[in-house]
Amino acid sequence: MFGLSMTVGIDLGTANTRVYVKGKGIVIREPTVIALDAETRKIMAVGKNARMMIGRTPGSILAVRPLKDGVIANYEMTEEMLRYFLNLTRSRRILMKPKVIVCIPSGVTGIHKRAILEAASEAGSRQTFLMEEPMAAAIGAGLNIWEPSGTMVVDIGGGTTDIAVISLGGIVTADSCTVGGDRFDEAIIRYVRQEHNLTIGERTAEDVKIQIGSVDPRANTGTAEIKGRDFVTGLPKSIDFSSGEVCRAISEPFYEIINNVKSVLERTPPELASDIVEKGIVCTGGGALLNGFTMLMSEEIRVPVHVAEDPMNCVIIGASKAFESPEIFRNSLVPGPKFM
Ligand SMILES: Nc1ncnc2c1ncn2[C@@H]1O[C@H](COP(=O)(O)OP(=O)(O)OP(=O)(O)O)[C@@H](O)[C@H]1O
Ligand SMILES: [Mg+2]
Q1: Ligand positioned closest to the Cα atom of 67
Q2: 181-249, what's its fold?
Q3: pLDDT tens across the length of the chain (340 residues)
Q4: CA-CA distances (angstroms) from residue 302 to 52, 192, 277?
Q5: Pairwise CA distance, residues 139 & 203, whole Å
Q6: Three-class SS state of 323
Q7: Fewer CB atoms near the end CB (10 Å): N or C, the chain?
Q8: Per-domain residue ranges for the chain?
Q9: Residue 306, SS3?
């Protein structure tokens, strides 16, 4: 299995990438953003520093998010980013290339799986293993997935929401939809444009969502000043934006997630569904932190809903457990080809 060579786990998220190195823990937690010189293709920044550049770059610099909707949208950039992160983890004493586990959304197709395997091997992985995100999320949330009882985990990430019912260590029913935090941000941008004639950037939208956002129309979580450009006059403008407005803006993507969860429950065998009603649904991912999310979800679905501890790190924690558990290794990982 994983012998003396270095082993690395990567949660390549649409919004954030986390890297785990066996024996060291989670060593990297950075936004999945890369900035490079448009002409020379030299990397200018990765992670937080690159995120700062989004929407602010001159023509000579590209700041891109290489993943969209949970899949690779820009292959070259994904490979560059993986190479950059893998290089950061490599110590000079160990010359051998690492073995790498990459977590992927459950709906990823064969072509995209191959693209990820290839990008990782090009980036310096000796052998790459794929692990489905819902499984990793459930393990990382500390759920007992091996018992003959239904467990439901909903991972609300930046690009996708992964929904899965797990029993006896395997996924019984699952669905992955491309609705996550990014869609909430886009909905805020659209709303502000329609209602206030104001054009704002995606970072501003995300910041206001995290600061005062709520999906619960009864909650009053305050107001925030947002700045952008008046698209009638073309001049800079700022407005006060209330949590009620954020709620109206994001209600559509929220209910899309709820409907997807309902449809997975409808397809779940009755014995497992009754286990879930008893134990409740566990939410992971950054979206689970949105104010009112789990409460309203519980009211809509009529099942208790809990947020996992440290929800944004559940997937990488789950992947890290695969290094220690032959059972997880055998059952939950798909090995790619070996390279020397
Ligand atoms: N406190 C918060 N309130 C609301 N949303 C939040 C909060 N913190 C983070 N988010 C959102 O969570 C999302 C990122 O979550 P996460 O890091 O789990 O996604 P990811 O793993 O990168 O994406 P994916 O799994 O879809 O590929 C972003 O859209 C971010 O805006
Ligand atoms: Mg994720």
Answers
A1: 1
A2: Actin; Chain A, domain 4 (3.90.640)
A3: 555 568 899 999 999 999 999 889 999 999 999 999 988 989 999 999 999 888 887 888 889 999 988 788 888 899 889 889 988 887 766 668 899 999 987 777 888 888 889 989 988 899 999 999 999 999 999 999 999 999 999 999 999 999 999 999 999 999 999 999 999 999 999 999 999 999 999 989 999 999 999 999 999 999 999 999 999 999 999 999 999 999 999 999 999 999 999 999 999 999 999 999 999 999 999 999 999 999 999 999 999 999 999 999 999 999 999 888 877 777 778 888 776 5
A4: 41, 32, 8
A5: 31
A6: coil
A7: C
A8: 7-31+69-133+314-338, 136-142+149-179+257-312, 181-249
A9: strand
CA–CA gap between residue 72 and residue 139 (Å, rounded): 25
Task: Report the distance separating Cα 80 and Cα 84, nearest Å.
Answer: 6
CATH class of 136-142+149-179+257-312: alpha beta
Tell me which amino acid residue 14 is: T
Distance 231 CA to ligand 2 centre (A): 34
Does the 7-31+69-133+314-338 domain belong in CATH 3.30.420.40? yes
Specify the pTM.
0.93
Beta-sheet pairing, 170-177 with 161-167: antiparallel
Question: Please, what is the angle between helix 243-266 and helix 202-212, to 10°?
Answer: 90
Which residue's CA is the closest to the ligand 1 atom numbered 8? 286
Domain 136-142+149-179+257-312 and domain 181-249, same fold? Reply is no
Q: Which ligand is nearest to the CA of 108?
A: 1
Return residues with CB closer than 5 A to ligand 2 (ion).
13, 157
Rounded Cα–Cα distance for residues 193 and 62 (Å): 25
Atom of ligand 1 nearest to the CA of 184: 29
Confirm or reject: Cβ of 286 under 6 Å from ligand 1.
yes
Ligand 2 centroid to 151 CA: how many Å?
A: 19
Give residue 13 CA to ligand 2 midpoint distance, Å.
5
